[in-house]
Specification:
56% of the residues lie in helices and 3% in strands. The protein has 324 residues and is mainly α. It comes from Methanococcus maripaludis (Methanococcus deltae).
């Protein structure tokens, strides 16, 4: 089944999980065991949210967790992939959770599926994010470094970085913005080419909107289907190459590291802008479900990952659990 077919059959928003007494008896045992092991409260709460998804699936099958067969576990992970649109990383978290759950409750029926999965390397691929987030202060330092450079394209490059920060867009999404996607009266852009295949609308500040208006007047090609960020070397209206954006950003970051403005041990990349924007919005009190929509995430858990503040994450998990 391809992505388009999947979207026709299943809603992108996962079905809500209702708490039941049957779930509670397992959750209680699991929580007591984890607390006895001195596991952090935030980790336990996170695990319980996922555990309820699994227990609700067991109820769908009208089976107890200790009655499930290897094939039933296969069904569960297909359910996570197809109906809940879980990423590889999230599925790995469920796999690790079930290993702990079945070990703590001393049930043996998960063991066969675990061995088979390890042999077939089902849960060994991780969507690792090898970068650090940045705050507004660091972002402005990078922006200033680009503006003060000797590059002929520094205005375009700095504007692109500014758009990336304010919108939280992925690099490819910003580079693919065309004239027809712009509503410059409102400072809005329609993002079409997205990772999740779903269009969304993003906004920029009034100041950035004015700069965009002035900048795009200088483009050689300004038809509806032309990109707003054009390659100024080829003069053919083609979009800026992604590698160029990375190189410009990296050069600015390296200069700031040399000057001691950014710690040398930190890995700051273009995607750090997106990560930093998510954290900034959450810090300012924007609801996490709104941040999820702004960033174009499929899963709320992905948005939670973008928040590195332990205090905020714990508070959010407490609030989410109250709603379950």
């Amino acid at each position: 089944m391809n992505e388009m077919e999947r979207r026709l059959l299943y809603a992108d928003k996962p079905e809500p999980v209702k708490k039941t007494e049957e779930q509670n008896k397992y959750v209680k045992k699991f929580k007591e065991e984890r607390e006895f092991d001195n596991i952090k409260k935030t980790t336990i709460l996170n695990d319980i949210v996922r555990l309820r998804v699994f227990l609700a699936f067991c109820e769908e099958l009208e089976m107890e967790p200790f009655e499930l067969s290897t094939h039933d576990f296969v069904k569960f992970f297909n359910y996570l992939n197809n109906r809940r649109n879980c990423s590889i990383t999230t599925q790995n978290k469920y796999f690790n959770l079930l290993k702990v759950f079945y070990r703590l409750l001393r049930y043996e029926n998960f063991r066969e599926f675990e061995i088979e999965s390890n042999n077939r390397k089902r849960f060994t691929k991780y969507e690792k994010k090898h970068y650090d987030t940045i705050d507004f202060e660091t972002y402005t330092k990078i922006l200033k470094e680009v503006v003060l450079s000797n590059s002929r394209t520094k205005v375009r490059d700095a504007l692109l970085i500014r758009v990336l920060w304010e919108t939280g867009c992925r690099r490819s999404e910003a580079l693919n913005i065309r004239y027809k996607d712009c509503d410059l009266e409102k400072g809005r852009f329609r993002i079409r080419d997205t990772k999740t295949y779903e269009e969304r609308t993003v906004v920029v500040s009034e100041d950035t909107t004015k700069i965009v208006i002035d900048y795009i007047k200088q483009n050689l090609r300004r038809d509806a289907d032309d990109f707003i960020f054009q390659n100024e070397v080829t003069f053919n209206g083609k979009r800026v190459k992604p590698d160029w954006v990375t190189a410009v950003f990296k050069k600015a970051v390296n200069k700031l590291k040399e000057d001691g403005a950014i710690p040398k041990g930190r890995r700051v990349v273009v995607h750090s802008l997106r990560h930093g924007r998510a954290t900034d919005l959450l810090d300012k009190g924007v609801p996490i479900d709104i941040v999820k929509e702004i960033l174009g995430h499929k899963s709320l858990e992905t948005t939670l990952y973008y928040s590195h503040s332990k205090e905020r994450k714990e508070k959010l998990l407490d609030e989410i659990q109250k709603l379950l």
